[in-house]
Automatic annotation (TrEMBL):
Annotated SUPFAM superfamilies: Nucleic acid-binding proteins, P-loop containing nucleoside triphosphate hydrolases
PROSITE patterns on file: ENGC_GTPASE (PS50936), G_CP (PS51721)
Cellular component annotations (GO), alphabetically ordered: cytoplasm
Protein name as annotated: Small ribosomal subunit biogenesis GTPase RsgA
Residues involved in GTP binding: 112-115, 167-175
This protein's encoding gene: rsgA
Subcellular location: Cytoplasm
Co-factor requirement: Zn(2+)
EC number(s) on file: 3.6.1.-
Main location: cytoplasm
Residue ranges of every copy of the CP-type G domain listed in the record: 63-224
HAMAP family (UniProt xref): GTPase_RsgA
Species annotation: Vagococcus allomyrinae
Residues in EngC GTPase domain copies: 72-222
Keywords: Cytoplasm, GTP-binding, Hydrolase, Metal-binding, Nucleotide-binding, Ribosome biogenesis, RNA-binding, rRNA-binding, Zinc
Length: 299
């Protein structure tokens, strides 16, 4: 028996890296009976007599996991957001950030397609950078005529970390990784003009050794649902709202219509972005209206 890490899952096979080699394995039949689904990023116990015929025996406890993309034990998530084509979406960005915060994954924001912007559009992206850095998030905004420095900046986060790239479909995740490491030659797709979004070019999750760390290139998604988060937990996933909430008169304040709400006061004063508060209320409503889920373990 050997301990390793799943670095790719494809067509029912799990590719486990251990001791400098990759082993092709299958999951034992009792995994399904035990309701266990191995994920890329999982640390596992497996047995194998050769590199093409092995079996997973046990999935070790996870630090965290993401549903979309399906990956476990993530240290940090690079949220790749297009500035244009597809258009920048603050709502989608906040959905990704809330999801990462909930899983205790360190978020990094990377803005793409800057070279396609005019002066007004670039100024708007610079304001996005200022706004989110004020909250406490790292934001990487390439120069309009060169992205060399921004590539070096993102690489500094990679060593000894499992990093997942995520974001809207067509935002340029695979293109960005190709710029960082051209030998990857990851597939990229054009934007569908009829739909205004990119075609899915990444069909599975795979962990790629890069800059002394592991990087996941994952399918893009245009929507994220809060499947397990409770209304009470939501406040804690938006750092500036969580900080302000300590000053609310009522401990159970939902920051809607309650009197002496410090969150609403800071929205009015401009200390909290109006867009972030608007998204908080929207997410809260979605959670309140979510259909009950049975058989799910709460955090």
């Amino acid at each position: 028996m050997t301990q390793g890490q799943i670095r790719k899952a494809l067509s029912g096979f799990y590719y486990v890296y251990a001791d400098g080699q990759t082993y092709q394995t299958r999951a034992r039949g009792n995994f399904r009976n035990r309701n266990i689904t191995p994920l890329v990023g999982d640390h596992v116990i497996f047995e194998s007599t050769n590199t093409t015929d092995g079996y997973l025996l046990e999935v070790l406890p996870r630090e965290n996991q993401l549903v979309r993309p399906a990956v476990a034990n993530v240290d940090q998530g690079v949220v790749v957001m297009s500035s244009i084509s597809p258009n920048y979406s603050a709502n989608l960005l906040d959905r990704f950030l809330v999801t990462l915060e909930y899983e205790r994954i360190h978020p990094i924001i990377y803005l793409t397609k800057i070279d396609l912007l005019d002066e007004v559009g670039y100024a708007e992206m610079k304001q996005v950078k200022r706004d989110y850095e004020a909250i406490g998030y790292p934001v990487i905004l390439p120069e309009r005529d060169s992205n060399r420095e921004s590539l070096r900046e993102i690489e500094r986060y990679f060593p000894e970390q499992l990093t997942v790239f995520m974001g809207q479909t067509g935002a340029g995740k695979s293109t960005l990784l190709n710029h960082i490491s051209p030998e990857l030659a990851l597939k990229t797709g054009e934007i569908s003009k009829s739909l205004g979004r990119g075609r899915h070019t990444t069909r599975h999750v795979e962990l790629i050794p890069l800059a002394d760390g592991l990087v996941g290139d994952t399918p893009g998604f245009s929507a994220i649902d809060f499947l397990e988060m409770s209304a009470e937990e939501l406040t804690g996933q938006m750092p500036e709202i969580a900080r302000a909430a300590t000053g609310c008169k009522f401990r159970e304040c939902k920051h809607r219509q309650e009197p002496q709400c410090e969150v609403k006061a800071q929205v009015e004063s401009g200390e909290i972005l109006a867009s972030r508060y608007k998204h908080y209320l929207q997410f809260l409503e979605e959670i309140d209206n979510r259909k009950p889920m049975y058989g799910k373990n709460k955090k």
